[in-house]
Amino acid sequence: MFRKSVEVAAIALLLSATGGAEAAGDAASGKAIAERWCASCHVVGPEQATAMADVPSFGAIVERSKGELGWLEGFLADPHPMMPDMSLTRQEIRDLAAYIGSLD
Q: Which residue among 26, 40, 81, 86 is buried most deeply as judged by most CB within 10 Å?
């Protein structure tokens, strides 16, 4: 009886640990984040006509990166001084990176 309880508890613990696994980025959510936080400086998509002159568009970021955007999540987690601290969650960062990657 005790062994069965331990096995059930171990399975429940394992399921709860994996149930909180981080989700992959969602490009649609990332687009909404980009439009809310990034569009005042960057051109974030093809429907946007203008932004700040010396700031790269998201398309230019993808082009310069040649599709290798693995660095982007780290960069967004600790943005450079010219960027505001948006305090994005890890999921929001994954979503934003997924959106930028979808522009390729």
A: 26
Q: Which one, of 47, 51, 15, lies nearest residue 31 by Cα? A: 47
Contact (CB, 8 A) for 69 and 59: no
pTM: 0.74
Q: What is the DSSP letter of 36?
A: I
B/e letters for 36-64, b = 16+ CB within 10 Å, e = fewer, are ebbeeebbbbeeeeebeeeeebbbebbee
10-residue mean pLDDT profile of the chain (104 residues): values are 46 43 85 95 94 93 89 86 85 96 90
**Alpha helical stretches, state H, the chain:** 2-19, 27-33, 58-65, 70-77, 90-102
